[in-house]
Amino acid sequence: MLKMTHVSKIYRTDTVETHALREFSLTVDEGEFVSVTGPSGSGKTTFLNIAGLLEELSGGTYELDGRDISSLTDSERSKVRNEKIGFIFQSFNLIPELNIFDNVDVPLRYRGFKAPERQRRIERGLELVGLASRMKHYPAQLSGGQQQRVAIARALAGEPRFLLADEPTGNLDTEMAVSVLDLLDEINAGGTTIIMVTHELSLAKRARRNIFVRDGRVSDRPPEIRLAASAGQV
Amino acid sequence: MELGPIWRSLTRNKAGSVLIALQIAVTLAIMVNAIAIMQERAEQMGRPSGTDEANIFTLSSTAFVPDTNIQSLIEEDLKLIRSQPGVVEAIATNSFPLRQGGSARGFQLEPGAGKETLTGAVYYTDEHAIEAFGTHLVDGANFAPNQVVWGGQNGDEWPANIIITESFAKTLFPDTAESAIGKTVFVDDTRPVQIIGIIDRLQAPWRNWGEIENTVIVPLRQEGQQQWYLVRTEPGAQDRIMPEVEELLAQSNKNRIIQSVRTMQEVRDRSYLSDNAMIKMLGFIVTLLILITGLGIVGLASFNVSRRTRQIGIRRALGATRAQVINYFRIENLLISGLGIAVGAVLAIALNLFLVNAFSLTPMSWYVIPLAMLAMWVVGQIAVIGPARRASRISPAIATRSG
Ligand SMILES: Nc1ncnc2c1ncn2[C@@H]1O[C@H](COP(=O)(O)OP(=O)(O)OP(=O)(O)O)[C@@H](O)[C@H]1O
Ligand SMILES: [Mg+2]
Question: How confident is the model at residue A201 (pLDDT cuts 50, 70, 90)?
Fold first, then answer.
């Protein structure tokens, strides 16, 4: 469902050119749970941003569901993000001025759903993450783990086929991180394709497939994960 | 479309919005009342004087040699002016509409001291007046030449007949449908004068006088050293005749000075100078206020855009199109402006009631408030478009890049 071929991404400032991705090629099939690891600055977030249509690529081709992304207009890209992709961010990215209900509602309104449909989806999403009783709370009144679960509910409310997560557990303690991972497992079991960037090898290991990014390329050898796995660490 | 959440998020960050709404309200209230004042002034300025203004000019002649024979000077002057080709008519008069100086007299329906009198502006002139002013006789007759008398400036002499405006006739005889022609009124308590003619309209000399339409033409020539001549020309002849007449009069008798040679248009402009200035000043103030309010809205929206940079990026990541981001700010402005406009409309009405009571301003026309509300709404929508556009260009990548 996701196919990147020789994708490159160059950030240009006045003086410097940063090749964040070079000759990046990757195929992810429907239903996969892929973890992405790699050193800081290696291009993981860049890859995720391009995969999620948040940024445009500088070279190569990217097909999502067989459709060449580079031909889309800005509002078509918005529509694809809205309908097909769910995002989970390291810093939760809830909107502080809106309560939990309204936060989950945001993508649904852009989708143009009618009020009863939205309400149904919001309630179901919040039930799934165990926060149905907190609908009227504001983000600041929730713990980090709870906020991230709201963000997951928001990402899932539109029933995306594709879930992108950038360090979803980066701001959470281990216990909460594990519970979020359990949730993602469950979601993946329901058929949603997941790509998750993480620093934590123990979490990366739980994905069905691990890819390793180094210097803006998909590396053949993600040695640490194999080592870590064989060493029997969790 | 997103009314609910936009409103709820506004109420969590009220301070700036409330201030701007207040500013909009005050601007609207001031704007509405400034427009009401401007309208009132413009209406006053638009009232017809009842004269053929486009073709009339006036000048004053002051004899400075003590023993000048004023009667013959006036008669010669008028004969000279009236003989000029292109001159329709000319009179000597104590004053004329829009001059801002003149005389008024009390007229009473019953003779005797202490009876109620009604005031009318008086033009002391002759049987050529109707034609010279360019007003119209609607009832009765003009003065016959032998009904015109000479008199001094102390008002001791008084002729037997007068011609009055329709408006003054209604003021004198409000309860009767029957013509005022032939009726007798009294000046100086006991002196009877008969109304022999009614003209449709001729303004008094004072633009601010409440009874500006109540005017009387008196067939009495005052023998003052200073005389006003009022000359009506054929259409288009004024520019040629005005300097000619000035020159002729100056040459014909060197014992007097000719001055204040002005077209009726100039007289009108001078008369309404302050009203005109008032209209311009109010217009300037209103423009300035709208501009400041517009800038205030731009400022608040810009502040909101910067404050919400991250949130906008998140919304974009979650699927908002650029148009939807722009709409967000437009709707937000609609809510803030709507509040300000609603409060402003109430304020405007209150202020207007106050002005009507305290300064007897004419109550404003019904359409001023809706028009001003619409204007404020348009100002808001225009002011917000720049910041909203800027917001729509925020990259959705913000959601992953900062934080
Ligand atoms: N907007 C930008 N402008 C310029 N350079 C950028 C920009 N965004 C990222 N980069 C650069 O691109 C490279 C890849 O960055 P990226 O954020 O993808 O790394 P990462 O693998 O996600 O790192 P981390 O693990 O620290 O999050 C880095 O060298 C970074 O400095
Ligand atoms: Mg990153």
Answer: confident
Q: How far is the CA of A20 from the centre of ligand 2 (A)?
A: 11
Task: Write out pLDDT tens, residues B251-272.
Answer: 998 889 999 999 999 999 999 9
| Cβ–Cβ gap B324/A110 under 8 Å | yes
Find chain A residues with C-beta within 8 A of B314's C-beta: 93, 95
Q: Look at residue A203 in the predicted model and tell me its pLDDT.
A: 85
User: Angle CA(B249)–CA(B252)–CA(B254) in degrees, nearest 5?
Assistant: 95
pLDDT digits (tens, 9 = 90+) for B147-160: 999 987 666 778 99
How many other CB atoms sit within 10 Å of the CB of residue A143? 11
Residue A30 falls in which region: left (phi positive, over 0), alpha (psi -120 to 50) or beta: beta
- Nearest to A198, CA basis, from A54, A86, A91, A90: A90
> Which of B310, B324, B400 lies nearest to residue A54, judging by beta carbons?
B400
Q: Do B318 and A45 touch (CB under 8 A)?
A: no
Residue A227 has pLDDT above 60, yes or no: no
User: Would you say B334 and B17 are in contact if contact means Cβ atoms under 8 Å apart?
Assistant: no
Query: What chain A residue is nearest to B309 in terms of C-alpha separation?
Result: A95
Closest ligand 1 atom number to CA of residue A44? 21
Interchain contact, B315 vs A90, CB within 8 Å: no
CA dist B230 and B245 (Å) reads: 11
> How many other CB atoms sit within 10 Å of the CB of residue B177?
5
Atom of ligand 1 nearest to the CA of A216: 14
Q: Which DSSP string do the residues of B126-190 spell out, in sequence order?
A: -TTHHHHHT--EEEE-PPPGGG-EEE-SSS----SEEEEEHHHHHHHSTT--S--TT-EEEETTT
| ipTM, interface predicted TM-score of the complex | 0.92
Evaluate: CB of A40 within 6 angstroms of ligand 1: yes
For ligand 1, atom 5: residue with the closest CA: A11
Q: Any CB–CB contact under 8 A between A93 and chain B?
A: yes
Q: Cβ separation of B400 and A81 shorter than 8 Å? A: no
List residues bridging with B327 in a β-sheet.
none
Q: Is the pLDDT of residue A231 over 50?
A: no
pLDDT tens digits, residue range A55-88?
A: 999 999 999 998 999 889 999 999 999 999 999 9
Q: Which atom of ligand 1 is nearest to the CA of A12?
A: 4
Judge contact between B205 and B95, C-beta under 8 A.
yes
CA distance A165 to A156: 12
Q: Does residue A18 have its Cβ closer than 6 Å to ligand 1?
A: yes
Q: Looking at residues B36-44, what average pLDDT do you find?
A: 91
Residue B146 CA to residue B166 CA, distance in Å, equals: 25
| Nearest 10 degrees: Cα torsion B146, B152, B153, B157 | -60
User: CA of A122: how far to CAs of A107, A116, A181, B313, B352, in Å?
Assistant: 11, 10, 21, 22, 50
Predicted TM-score (pTM) above 0.90: no
The answer to whether residue A95 neighbours chain B at the CB level (below 8 Å) is yes
Q: Which among A49, A95, A158 has CB closest to B311?
A: A95
Mean pLDDT value across residues B338-362 = 92
Kindly report, residue by residue over B370-386, the tens digit of the pLDDT: 999 999 999 999 999 99
Q: pLDDT tens across A93-143, in order?
A: 999 999 999 999 999 999 999 999 999 999 999 998 889 999 999 999 999
Query: What single DSSP character describes residue B363?
Result: P
